[in-house]
Amino acid sequence: MEFCSEKTGSRCEKENGKQPREVSFSRKRKSRRDLFLNANVFSLVDSHVLCISKQLKSEGECSVLKVVQQITERCHTDLERIRAIWIWLCNNIEYDISGFLGLSEKISAPEQVLQSGRGVCSGYSSLCREMCREVGISCVEVSGYGKGIGYKLGQSYQHKKSNHMWNAVQLEGQWYLLDACWGAGTVNTEKQVFIQRYDEFYFLVDPEEFIDSHWPDDSTWQLMEPIVPLEEFEKRVFKTSEFYRLALSIILPKTSILQTVDGEATVLLACAAPLEFSYQLSQVCGDTIKDIDKSCGMVSVSHHSMKLKVLPPTRGLYDLMIFAKPVDSQGRFSWVCSCQINCNDLKCSEKLPQNPFHFWGFLQNAISFGMRKCSYGEDPIISKTGTLEFIFQTSRPLLAMYELAHEEMETSVAKRCIISQIEKDKLTCHVLCPLKGYYRLSVFVKDMQEQNFKNAGNFLIHCMQPVNLNELFPPNLSMHCGPGVKTAEVGLSRPSHPGPIINTNEGRCNITFQSSSDIEVTVVLTKDQDTDNTKHLDINRYVLVTHLENKVTISVCLPESGIYRLALFTGASDKKEFSHICDYVVRCFSNPCWSPFPRVYSMWKKGCVLLEPRSGVLEENSWARFRVRIPGAYKVFLIGQSKSELSVTKNKVWEGKVSTGPTGSVVKLAAKSSDQSPAMDVIMSFDVGSLNRTEDSSG
């Protein structure tokens, strides 16, 4: 961003060449806001001036007096008159690029500026002075230094001629500052063109803000006490007009050049309204500038502040530009301020992850997405064990997705480092870090019926001790892990295991839900990496689902150690269509060796309970005792080497024994529903073999 900033003479006089009267200060100075709340109060004046301007251009040459009379004919106060002059200057005079570059004589005399429609900065200020004279407003030209065309961060003005000219006008006995040259637009020095871009900021600017970019030769025209020395002016952080328009203020740094401390530099801005921020870091190498990627900085934003931590990749000098825009604005970011960073020491050799979203922590308007707060703050989150649990409180049910990034981690691995749980009023994300160093965890959310996910936050993680790659979560997990909104939707409640991760030392567990009477649950157990022991096993025989009237029990026994995915599906009892509702991750790092459950068939239905034996493998050549509940059964039989009928107790438990026979035999549990049933229905079957595994499965 460039400003029109140039002068041809060092003048600070009124229209007759005399020095202005002594400027006095009152203890309570009126600010611009005391004069007018915003530019809307001038809408009639502004529109009249713009309309008259078109008429005057069509008429050809005219005098200063004629222009002033016509643009101020509807003005009633000196404030409105100076406003009319300001608007006319900003919209009818272009900057004299040719004169500034020395390609032609500079245009600065009022009549020349008026007739040509061009002028350097002193042309704007001299014409402004003449126009004010015609309406009786006291106006002076002020010479000094402006941080405009050609300005470089950290440059010195010592022992150099001043380079700019602006005006001071007197209203209601008090002097105010304005710069019509900078208000008219900007200069593109590369293309050598003037870009008309009206800037309201430079109209009657408060001295405390004006001094950041304009330092007068005569310190009287700072219009403030105490006086700001030239050395301090040079060291001030460079701020654009947009900085003030967005109501920003600087907390850190205090000067325009930051020195790194332990390889790190911090910029802290305060803001009156929610804003979004971005930045550009460039390394200064002599006359060349090299852009640095955003992995060297961390932006964190709250409702009232922005903190940027910069970790330069190498020693040297850097230019830092900061950009901002209002939250939810569809427009571009605007440059708001700049400073330099002098790096003499490096933080570390570990590279930060790329962050395409440019900020860390919660997005400013994440609350509008339904996000309330996070269990972690905005600073880098330290993981000493390679595991983390993020909990996001929400104001309404949301769907969530996550992205974990590390400079050296493949996407396929990253997907196995995340478990997502979605509940009515919170989101939980379990994270595994398989590598040392820095990670970015990005959170994306949307409402249940919304189409697109929105980035709600980005969190920087620093892992000190990573987990083993063998400990990663199973692949292809659903975004719905553990009980949550989907289990509640289908009528499953009061889970025995409220979290999505189940750790079992014994290698077995029972997961229970309260359930409505009209749903049925089925499950699928998978293991990502089969071993020689499991590759030939029917892994789903290591899960048994038992349905009671208002309770579902999922019994799990594991054939060996490892990490398993347990997928739950539900459907109506009278239909065969099942829908996925959630996943559990079952982990066992001991050495279990459980036998599988018996095979179950379609007649294994609600109310059926296997009490004994729980194992699906029976000892060879032995008598096996059975106890089972089978609602609606007329007779129950065990069919092995022989057929035996079970007897029913007063508690409606069918009991009996059967001879198992040799290894390789099968024992079947069957039932007849009535005396007229032509055949028996097989409910479950048991293998017969030598029990090298744990004798009894999960109970």
From TrEMBL:
PANTHER family: CYTOKINESIS PROTEIN 3, TRANSGLUTAMINASE-LIKE DOMAIN-CONTAINING PROTEIN. This is Kyphoscoliosis peptidase. It comes from Latimeria chalumnae. The gene is KY. GO terms for cellular component: cytoplasm. SMART domains: TGc. Residues 113-182 form the Transglutaminase-like domain. It holds the Pfam family Ig-like_KY.
